[in-house]
Amino acid sequence: MYAELRRELIAVKFCKPLVANPDYDGVELENEIHALTEALPAKHPRVIEAFDTYDDGHIQWLTTRYMTGGDLQCFVNKFPWAVSESLIWHIGYQIAEGLAHLFFGANAANNMSPAAGWPCIFHGDIHLGNLFLGPAVSGKSLGNFPDLVLADFGESDHYPASEQVPVTGFVTYLSHHVRDLYNAGKALEELLDVLVVDGRTLARDSVLLDGIDRFGAIRVEGPKKVSKEGILKLLSGFMIVADEQRRKYYQPMPADAAASLVAEKVSDGDLEMIFCRSGSHSKPKKGKR
Ligand SMILES: Nc1ncnc2c1ncn2[C@@H]1O[C@H](COP(=O)(O)OP(=O)(O)OP(=O)(O)O)[C@@H](O)[C@H]1O
Ligand SMILES: [Mg+2]
User: Fold this and answer.
1) Can you give the residue ranges of the Protein kinase domain (predicted)?
2) Ligand 1 touching residue 237 (CB < 6 A)
3) Residue of 115, 119, 151, 173 with fewest CB within 10 Å of its CB?
4) CA nearest neighbour of 45 among 67, 75, 12, 28
5) 12 CA distance to ligand 1 centroid (A)?
6) Residues 114, 120: contact at Cβ < 8 Å?
7) CATH number of the domain at 3-67, out of 3.30.200.20, 3.20.20.140, 3.30.390.10, 1.10.3300.10?
8) In the predicted model, what is the mean pLDDT of the chain?
9) What is the pLDDT, as a whole number, of residue 280?
10) In angstroms, how far is CA 8 from the centroid of its own chain?
């Protein structure tokens, strides 16, 4: 009945009036609004799309695309059997795409090179619960695999694009970016644990473990190795291997997991409650004229 309305669903994050909510200082939502609507110079399919925002210093809200597949943590809890090596590579590939955009504005179209004047945003809170899934844009992904977006930018920050990075300051400057990489590696490791715990053997484990390890390794390689170029090289190198591997060993996700990406998680009853509550907009009650 509400099929058309359901297609228009968006997600809303809001902060209650700050006076009524003294424990919350509003900074997280403010950060997120800033990152998604002001700091990032361009949209990207791997970053949650923000539609609209409001902030009068008292009430804040942000609307974004509603991701029908939910977050990756919930997905994995519900469908551990859907986690294959190929899917882990795919997820890793898409996380790397997202980070390359955030950090440097680098993408396939500009040959993975840093965009001039990019503000070098970092996410600050990469974990499975902040990676959301949706159905893939048709023809642009792999088989029935989902598309992933980085979301929940409450901990993110960036450096002014105009700021000259002192050579000796590289480590501090990029330490948050390195932590994003490390956390991305951790998230992939958690997926790997699901695969192993589920009793399946890892035929190609060494390549996968090696690929994941590199995300964390940059953290301990020492200050001299950490530079913009180093991070970008790591991301693009990982993407080349990940793309090869996800295609080589592709196996479709089971039907239940694939269907959940587009499942109607908001029932007709929920929508009726939201849009037809009491008051002047209420739906006329049948039989009560
Ligand atoms: N755009 C979205 N589409 C679908 N589900 C979303 C979206 N944004 C948030 N959610 C879901 O809503 C819930 C609350 O998300 P939110 O990011 O506000 O808080 P949180 O993730 O619980 O908090 P935190 O990450 O700060 O610990 C989560 O279960 C999340 O998966
Ligand atoms: Mg979250």
Assistant:
1) 1-261
2) no
3) 115
4) 67
5) 10
6) no
7) 3.30.200.20
8) 81
9) 44
10) 21
- Which atom of ligand 1 is closest in space to residue 65's alpha carbon? 1
Q: How far apart are CA 99 and CA 114, in angstroms?
A: 12
Q: Residue 212 in contact with residue 185, Cβ under 8 Å?
A: yes
Query: Ligand 1 in contact with 71 (CB < 6 A)?
Result: yes
Which has the closest alpha carbon to 147: 90, 197, 99, 106? 90
Q: Where are the domains of the chain?
A: 3-67, 72-259
pLDDT at 106: 94
**72-259 CATH choice from 1.10.1400, 3.40.1000, 1.10.510, 3.30.2320:** 1.10.510
> What torsion, rounded to 10 degrees, do the Cα atoms 36, 40, 46, 52 define?
30
| pLDDT (0 to 100) of residue 254 | 95
Q: What is the pLDDT of residue 172?
A: 59
Find all residues with CB under 8 Å of 255, minimum gap 6, and list them: none
pLDDT at 236: 93
For the CA of 154, the closest atom of ligand 1 is 26
67 within ligand 1 shell (Cβ under 6 A): yes
Please work out whether the CB of residue 130 comes within 6 Å of at least one atom of ligand 1.
Answer: yes
pTM of the prediction? 0.86
- If one counts every other C-beta atom within 10 angstroms of the C-beta of residue 97, the result is 24
What is the spatial distance between Cα 7 and Cα 68, in angstroms, rounded to a whole number? 10
Q: From CA 59, how far away is CA 63, in angstroms rounded?
A: 14
Residues of the chain with pLDDT under 70: 1-2, 5-7, 16-25, 138-139, 159-173, 197-207, 216-225, 276-289
Report the pLDDT value the prediction gives residue 116, as an integer from 0 to 100. Answer: 87
Quick one: which of 259, 93, 231 has its CA closest to 171? 231
